[in-house]
């Protein structure tokens, strides 16, 4: 049974396993990640194998903060501003990669850029400190499936593929980090996530541009079909059929569904984001013909929620 409470001793053992080239699942404030020593190409290859992830989809590297990020990527003015405002926290910055940085090429899938994030979760920080290594860490789900927001979800996805699953309780944000590229002249939004577009634009004093087609292709987490539950999703539902499960939002919920989970009765988008993936997992088990999803506003964290729902609904 690879799930272990994230005690100091377990974190020490996990750090040893990482130094020995093994892979370990760990909690972050967004979702659970699957870590490997980013300097060790063979360890990184194990992450791709465990997730059954295509090799062209690059990984995020978790670091302590901006000083360490600067060892692997080129920190410019926009990176400095955004890191000062949001690190440690749920923002990933894509920078130009230093050619001599030592990070395994596989991490960046051969690109000349690198995605870096300093997580805020105390267990993630303790693991980074003990391991004293940059940790490559995608979400700890099988490729194309729903991200895990609890240790049990990781076990359901990956079984005993990780040497350990550190259990740090439910993920506070419950949705992945926002990915912003600071490679071009103007910062671009590659993936909406736990930090809202509005908050980032306030710090930059300028709008985020849309990712260019080339950047989108380099960021396959942006693929239209992703996060897929087994049960088909029906978006923008205002009524529900008896054979459907209902993903509800707000106080005015139609009755009669086979199973219902309300993301937020009070219509709070932070609460809804934090419950989204666990709710999809739960409704996927209801044996329903479809999961009907009520409309959710597109502002603030609603942008990331709607992004994930659209891609979960796309059977590709
Ligand atoms: O919240 C999170 O970001 C979680 C936790 C564990 O930190 N991690 C996560 O990783 O969501 P993953 O691998 O599931 O998503 C990483 C995203 C993908 O969309 C990937 O394509 C993009 O970041 N990405 C990574 N490196 C990139 C690069 N060099 N250029 C463009 N996009 C990149
Ligand atoms: Mg993922």
Please report the distance between the alpha carbons of the first and last residues: 34 Å
**Could you tell me the mean pLDDT?**
94
Number of helices: 10
**Which CATH architecture of the largest domain would you pick?**
Alpha-Beta Complex
CATH class of the largest domain: Alpha Beta
Shape: globular
Poorly predicted sequence stretches spanning 5 or more consecutive residues: none
Strand segment tally:
15
Strand arrangement within the widest β-sheet reads 1-8-2-3-7-4-6-5-9-10-11
Query: How many domain units?
Result: 2
Helical fraction: 25-40%
Q: What topology emerges from the helices and strands here?
A:
Layout: E1 3-5, H1 8-19, E2 24-26, E3 33-37, H2 41-51, E4 60-62, H3 66-72, H4 77-86, E5 91-96, E6 113-117, H5 122-131, E7 135-136, H6 151-158, E8 164-167, E9 178-181, E10 188-191, H7 197-204, E11 209-210, H8 213-217, E12 233-234, E13 244-248, E14 259-262, H9 269-284, E15 290-293, H10 302-313
Parallel strand pairs: 1-8, 2-8, 4-6, 5-9, 10-11, 12-15, 13-14, 13-15
Antiparallel strand pairs: 2-3, 3-7, 4-7, 5-6, 9-10
Bound molecules: threonylcarbamoyladenylate (TXA) and magnesium ion.
Threonylcarbamoyladenylate (TXA) is lined by residues 28, 30-31, 33, 57-60, 90, 92, 94, 108, 111, 113-115, 117, 137-139, 176-177, 179, 190-191, 218-222.
Which properties best describe this structure?
single chain, 316 residues, alpha/beta, DHBP synthase, Rossmann fold, 2 domains, eleven-stranded mixed beta sheet, four-stranded parallel beta sheet, 10 helices, 31% helix, binds threonylcarbamoyladenylate, binds magnesium ion
């Amino acid at each position: 049974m690879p799930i272990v409470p994230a005690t100091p001793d377990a974190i020490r053992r996990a750090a040893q396993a990482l130094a020995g080239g093994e892979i370990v699942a760990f909690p972050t404030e967004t979702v659970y990640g699957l870590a490997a020593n980013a300097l060790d190409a063979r360890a990184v290859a194990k992450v791709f194998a465990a997730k059954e992830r295509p090799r062209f989809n690059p990984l995020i590297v978790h670091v302590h903060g901006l000083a360490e990020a600067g060892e692997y990527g080129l920190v410019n003015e926009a990176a400095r501003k955004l890191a000062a405002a949001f690190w440690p926290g749920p923002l990933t910055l894509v920078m130009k990669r230093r050619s001599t940085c030592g990070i395994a090429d596989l991490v960046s899938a051969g690109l000349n850029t690198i995605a870096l994030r300093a997580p805020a979760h105390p267990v993630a920080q303790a693991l980074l400190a003990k391991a004293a290594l940059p940790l490559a860490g995608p979400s700890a789900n099988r490729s194309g499936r729903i991200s895990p927001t609890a240790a049990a979800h990781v076990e359901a996805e990956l079984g005993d593929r990780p040497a350990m699953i550190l259990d740090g309780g439910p993920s506070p944000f419950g949705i992945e980090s926002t990915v912003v590229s600071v490679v071009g002249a103007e910062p671009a939004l590659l993936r909406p996530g736990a930090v809202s577009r509005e908050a980032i634009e306030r710090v930059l004093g300028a709008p985020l541009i849309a990712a260019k087609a080339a950047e989108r292709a380099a960021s396959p987490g942006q693929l239209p079909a992703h996060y897929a539950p087994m049960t088909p999703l029906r978006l923008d539902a205002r009524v529900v059929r008896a054979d459907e499960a209902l993903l509800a939002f707000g106080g005015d919920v139609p009755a009669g569904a086979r199973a219902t989970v309300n993301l937020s009765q009070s219509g709070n988008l932070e609460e809804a984001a934090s419950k989204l993936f666990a709710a999809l997992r739960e409704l996927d088990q209801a044996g329903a013909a479809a999961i009907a999803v009520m409309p959710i506003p597109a502002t603030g964290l609603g942008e990331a929620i709607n992004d994930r729902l659209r891609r979960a609904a796309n059977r590709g």
